[in-house]
Amino acid sequence: MHTDVLLTLFMLSLATIPFYMLGAGVLHRMGRVPNGLETISILSNMYTETLGVWAWWLFMVGAFGVLFSTVVSGLGGASGMFADCMAVLGVIDPKDNRARLRVLRIWAVGAPAIMSTC
Predict the structure, then answer these.
(1) Considering the entire predicted model, what is its pTM?
(2) How far from 95 is each of 87, 103, 107, CA to CA, in Å?
(3) Other Cβ atoms within 10 Å of 82 Cβ, number
């Protein structure tokens, strides 16, 4: 399992670095530096200026898919980790699966609700 994780990390790094360099090169040539909330508009402009206006929708659908899948997968792991943390801290009984499931569900609903208000 450790070898699998290390190989995956290595391969994903090799695949990500060229895209990062390509994006940095295009943004540098355009004289733009993304910062804060304007990052999305600057990155979408990078696509629309090179591919055309129709690419804005392609970028937005892709960006939503990437960000949404990241939130969903992170939430799955975080809610399980939070339930385990409550068991380790003694807030719930580690052998009580119903209590663990209740904490997991509360975290899975509550965490995104709280984060979306910030």
Answers:
(1) 0.59
(2) 9, 13, 19
(3) 17
